[in-house]
Amino acid sequence: MSGIRPTGFLHLGNYFGAVRNYVKLQSQFTCYFMVADLHSLTTHPDTRELKGHVHRVLAENIACGLDPEKVALFCQSHVPETTELYLYLNMLAYKGELEKTTTFKDKVRQQPENINAGLLTYPVLQAADILLHRASLVPVGKDQEQHLEMARTFANRFNHRYGEVFPEPQAFNFGEELVKVPSLDGTGKMSKSENQLATIYLADDDDLIRKKVMKAKTDAGPTAPNTPRPDYIVNIFQLMQLVGTAENLKFFEDAYDECRIRYGDMKKQLAEDMVHFITPIRQRAESIRTDHAYLKKVMDIGAEKARASARETMRLAREVMGLDYY
Ligand code: AMP
Question: Which residue has the CA at smallest separation from atom 11 of ligand 1?
Fold first, then answer.
């Protein structure tokens, strides 16, 4: 189970942190993937662009290889059981622990004029999404590690207080550490809303990709062999590792260690690797995104599958809670 907020265009961070794993998981497990539209209201209360973003997230997921016939691909708000479980879990979540969450503290800094209760209880809603399907594996990027720890805490508290209903969910990445895809300017991670010129979006055209990559921060290069790489150079190597070939990566690593690296050449190679990687996804996504009848069908079928699983979980949850008065 996992989700992506419809707050903008998907980028390479979403792909390597999340969607790539969704696609791998779909043939081995029963999967639930959603567009987290309720979560987006905590930071984006203006809903004028929401529909377009929801369509985009669905289309880009499918273009990356997610098969709506294999998985439940749905919208969070189409599964009202989510908000019921969110309410019960809210009674088990304490103000102190929610206030200490890193993402909450970040958002308080970013939007001091709108520190709403939904923002504070964001990890509770996320736990409800996951626990609603009694999911064990949650494919997410590294930024979600703390939220997953909280989901485990809420699951355990519920099980302990009322009775065993929920397995402990784990953050998941295929065979490796959780991924954080860095931004091109070396200041943070790729993101839907921040760092837009330093983020590569799946919808970027070839020239824009080249322009962004060529602007990536570099320096004059190392002057002594085997000099440790500064963060912004580590980032460029990491991006090449994600989208390029092992051969090219080794070529530039050796060139760096032997002080003969030409960052202009490396960035040109990285730009072409990214263009090669993104072009087919962008083209597929564009035709899916504009097919509204198809997207409606995907959402309807997805909601049906997700609600069947949600209803069964809520039946169990109400039963152990003693909310069954007949
Ligand atoms: P969001 O865009 O915040 O709704 O996140 C959707 C998914 O993408 C979550 O699983 C995040 O962990 C993942 N994600 C977002 N940005 C990055 C990034 N720069 N690197 C790795 N994963 C990311």
Answer: 141
